[in-house]
Amino acid sequence: MSQDSPVRMDNNQVLIFDTTLRDGEQSPGCSMTTQEKLSMAHALEDLGVDILEAGFAMASEGDFAAIATITQAIRGPRITSLARARSEDIVMAARSLEHADRARIHVFLASSDLHLEYKLKMSREQALDQTAECVRQARALCDDVEFSPEDATRSNRDFLVDMVRVAIQAGATTINMPDTVGYSTPEEYAQMFREVRQRVPAVDAEGIVLSSHCHDDLGLAVANSLAAVAAGARQVECAVNGIGERAGNAALEEVAAAIYVRPDYYGVTTGLHIDKLYPTSQTLGQIITFAPSPNKAIVGANAFAHESGIHQHGMLANPLCYEIMTPASVGVPATTLVLGKHSGRAALRHRLEQLGFTLSREELQQTYYRFVALADRKKNVYDQDLVGLLSQQIRDRRPMSMAEVD
Ligand code: KIV
Ligand code: ZN
User: Fold this and answer.
1) Band of residue 6 on the pLDDT scale cut at 50, 70, 90
2) What is the pLDDT of residues 228-285, one digit of tens each?
3) Which of 49, 177, 221, 365 is the most exposed place for a label (fewest CB within 10 A)?
4) Tens digits of residue pLDDT in 148-183
């Protein structure tokens, strides 16, 4: 592992820390082989993520092997290995990163009384000592150390501030404050970042990067992550397609697209090639063999599909009427006007023209009646159905009335 300097960046740049291969992989049905993780790591490198959390070295031999393999093949992003605040985990994380060009050890220890009392059976004082000791150990092995007070959002605020202070004094270069159980709200999460920045002057004075890590139990992971950015977080931890423990992590593509579409509001940038968002999502879907839900923002099958006649008409007149980004900008091949019972004549004519049929007004009207009758019986009308309708119409060679199609 090379000893390089920790991440430093412009104040308006947000680092994208991808945890698809670690937290993402922890969700049911999402486990990946080393080869699969390597393919995904290449896709993430192409996408331009800044930090790639490759796994939890101590969790299994497979995880260790995957991290080690990724460090040898991937050169763009900084590679991170997760470790509990235990000496043996930290040693294992450092070993897994031995061949990394740029490495980070990510140490975590719970900060909430609930976790300390029931899970770790540890007092607050012990937790502070362990934080100092483990961050120091990690820092001796790697120049870039991230510390996460797990369950930060349900922790006593004074104690959280103490833990952050201790971690920075011991050498942490990034402080990640996870909403481990997806409990927080955007206002509350943002306030936590503002308060920590204000009460721990070393954060700004020493250029410590504050990071968000949100779970989606209340469907707020992306909103919370963006609220943290607005409050000064300069790293967002997220996963492709939003996969992750339970309801998942903040979806990388949603965070990235929000920052891209609303520079006026967030005033920050990422280093991502956002036209790779959709291909990266597809790669993950193929590897884990399940696609995001069709209505998933940015990368779902319906994210750029329009069915209602009013929307289709507006889209044909000017796509800005119903789309806030072009599909091409996020790598989606094209907008789809889905033909169904809500579609209008404008969309039907457009599709027929794309298929090479130019119809007179009268012909279009006849085809439209037949099309609506068919769409009432069938969920979607495909190109072959349209060609079928036209051939039948040509065969019939006689005008139709509504009564006929009804
Ligand atoms: O959700 C969480 O708290 C985590 C930590 C390990 C960062 O995944
Ligand atoms: Zn997590």
Assistant:
1) low
2) 999 999 999 999 999 999 999 999 999 999 999 999 999 999 999 999 999 999 999 9
3) 365
4) 999 999 999 999 999 999 999 999 999 999 999 999
CA torsion angle for 263, 265, 268, 272 (degrees, to 10)?
A: -50
Burial of 251 (0-12, 13-18, 19+ CB in 10 A): buried
Whether 176 and 71 share a structural domain: yes
Boundary of a domain, candidates 288, 318, 353: 288
Considering the domain boundaries, does residue 134 fall inside one? yes
Report which residue type is found at 303: A
Residues 247 and 357 in one domain: no
For 108, the domain range is: 15-288
Among protein residues, the one whose CA lies closest to atom 1 of ligand 1: 180
Same structural domain, 119 and 199: yes
CB atoms inside a 10 Å sphere around CB 262: 13
DSSP H or E run through 167: helix 157-169
DSSP state of 105: E
Longest dimension (CA), the chain: 88
Cα angle 227, 230, 236 (rounded to 5 degrees) comes to 70
The verdict on residue 296 lying in a domain is no
215/359 same-domain check: no
- Mutation pick for ligand 1 pocket among 63, 175, 180 (CB with most ligand atoms within 8 Å): 180
Specify whether the backbone of 239 is left (phi greater than 0), alpha (psi in -120 to 50) or beta: beta
Number of domains in the chain: 2
Distance 3 CA to ligand 2 centre (A): 27
What distance in angstroms lies between residue 402's CA and the mean position of ligand 2's atoms? 58
Report if residue 156 sits inside a domain: yes
CATH of the domain at 66: 3.20.20.70
Phi, psi for 68 (deg, rounded to 5): -60, -40
From the CA of 181, the nearest ligand is: 1
300, HSE (Cβ side, Cα atoms, 13 Å): 13
Q: Is 213 in the pocket of ligand 1 (CB under 6 A)?
A: yes
Q: Which of 260, 288, 316 is the last residue of a domain?
A: 288
Determine the residue type at 42.
H
Query: Global pTM?
Result: 0.91
278 and 317 share one domain: no
